[in-house]
Every structure is written in structure tokens, then in C-alpha cells.
Amino acid sequence: MAQSFEPKKLLSLNSLLAFGVLAVILRLSDGGDVAIFATSALAIIPLAGLIGTATEEIAARTGPQIGGLLNATLGNAAELIITIFALREGLLELVRASIIGSVLGNLLLVMGLAILLGGLKNGLQTFDRRGATMNATLLILAFMALAIPSLFDATFVEEQAFGDELLLSEGVAIVLILLYAASIVYSLRNTHAPGDVSAHFHHEPRWSVRTAIGVLAFATLGIVVMSEFLVGSVEPVVEELGWSELFVGVIIVPIVGNVAEHLVAVQVALKNRMELSMSIALGSSLQIALFVAPVLVFISLLFDDKLVLAFSLPEVIALAAASYVAALVAEDGESNWFEGLMLLGVYVIIGWAFFLLPQ
Length: 359
Hints:
By secondary structure, this protein is mainly α. The protein is built from 14 helices and two strands. It has helices spanning 7-14, 18-28, 33-62, 64-74, 77-88, 92-122, 129-151, 162-189, 209-232, 234-241, 245-270, 274-299, 313-330, 337-356, and strands spanning 125-126, 334-335. It is globular, with a radius of gyration of 19 Å.
């Protein structure tokens, strides 16, 4: 769910664009894979922020309905591009891990940091209980839908059964996309509905439409190039550093693709706008689970390796824990710093467990 930065914060983040130039130089000069991976990852951070800012600038001029649709479509563009390149390279485990990692990152890392820092500064914070509970309930429903193909994965053990497994994932993907479309329709028809971000986040446009479109095109092209560099160096980096592909997908890729949005959620929490912060964290998680994941299933049909929504047992358990804890935090409409610390604690435990998993 794209959100924009204040000008000063945007300028400081854009200083990381220099890593994009460095990544190109390293790639052309056959630099080390670890260096290419690191520099391209750092370059994606400001580019993702530019996509969010450009989208918000266009949305500010088009009205809440079209603006909400733009945010819903482009909110996780950076991560979608990264995973498409991973699909092309056949890195299906990385793609599935990044889907889980994005949801975990938003529910535990982003929400945890926002609640912790917002609570330390402002004390007990409140937000609309109905909207947060509705989003949390939808998230648990999405978890159940994503878990079903995983639970039935053992049934499709024979090679000839893969077509049925893919058909199951496609059916689940269609249902999730329909639910996501229905949630957008509900939000557009109820501009003051609980949990609707557009009703709480609006600013006067600073850029012209032409400038915003130009920045959006530049940032998208930049992410395409950096994503190719990043994905192309994953396997050598995994081998050289001893990381598992699962750890890179669950922790590294989601953080890189969503840092800009994470900072916005924390920023508004510090301003005691906890309702908006919760909407960003929960909304982005829903966008990954209900839109990005199912779309990737159909995009994978264009490549040799087809994506099925069959996640590993650790991924399913981690997603279940995050969804349940987030729902508990959201149900009373109040938050304090200790709840944020608990969410961060769960994220650290999960991250450490994935780090220690063998390759």
C-alpha cells in the first residue's frame, strides 16, 4: 500500500540511489556477487520509496476513488517485480518465502516498531477497532486459504498429480483475487469505512502529473534493472555466505522491497496517528496475501517452472503465529509499547529460526 514521504525524509532516502550506479559498475566489471547483491538491494530501497511517492502524488490529483485504486495496484510493485524475476530464474522457494516474509514483516516488524516507538512517545494509543478487526479477520481468512494447498501438498506426491496441485493453487488464487477486488469495491463505496487509508492520508500535491508519471516510470525501470541484478546474484550469495534461500526470501527480500513503506508506518505512529499506521501494516499484508501471491501463480504460467502455493511447514506455522498475534493486538482498538516489543520479539525468534535452517 503505497504511501509518500515528507520531503526531507525522501531526500535522505534518495541518497541511496548512488548504490544503483555502483551496482551497474560492479555488474559491468564482473564484481563480486555479494557486492552486487548488497548494492542492488540498497538501490531498490529508494526506488520503492519513489514509486510510493509518485503514486501518492498522482492519487492526490485524481480523487480518492482512482487514488485508492492506484494505491491498491502499485502498493507492492517493487516486491512484485523482484519475484517475477525470481520466477523467471526458477527460484520458486525464494518466491514463496518472500510472500510469507512480506506478511511477517508487515505484521511483526512494521507493526511492532510502530507500536513500540509510538507508545514510548505518546503512551497508550487508540485506533478504530472495527476497521482493524475487519482487516485482521480478512488476513486470517487469507492465511487459511494459503495454508490449504500446503496441507494438501503431501497428497499430490506423484509426478502426474502436479497438474491437480497447480489447479488447486489456481482455484485458491482466483478466490483470493475476487476477495481483494471486493475489498477495493467496499473501500471505494465507503470512503469513510473503518480501515480506509485514503480517508486519513491526504496531502496537497507537490509535483505535476507529468513529473509524477516520469518519476514513476524511472523508478519502475530502475527496480527492473536492480531486481535482475539482485535475483541473478542470489544463488552465488547463498552459497558463499552460507545462508539458506528460505532465509533470503523470508527476511532479506521483503525488507528491501518494503523499507520505504515501513518507515512511513513508523513515522505516522510517532505523530500519534495509530489508525493510519495500523492500516498501512495490515493493508500491505492483505495486498501481498490477496493480490500479489495469487497474481504470481498466474504469471508463473508464462515460465517453465510453475508456482504452486505449497509452503513449507515452518512457513505455515510462522504465518499462522503472525496472523493470530496481529489479530489479538488489533481486537481491542488500543496499543502500548509493550505490545510492540512482543511483536518484535516474535519476529526476531522467527528470523533466527529461518537463519539457522540448513541450505
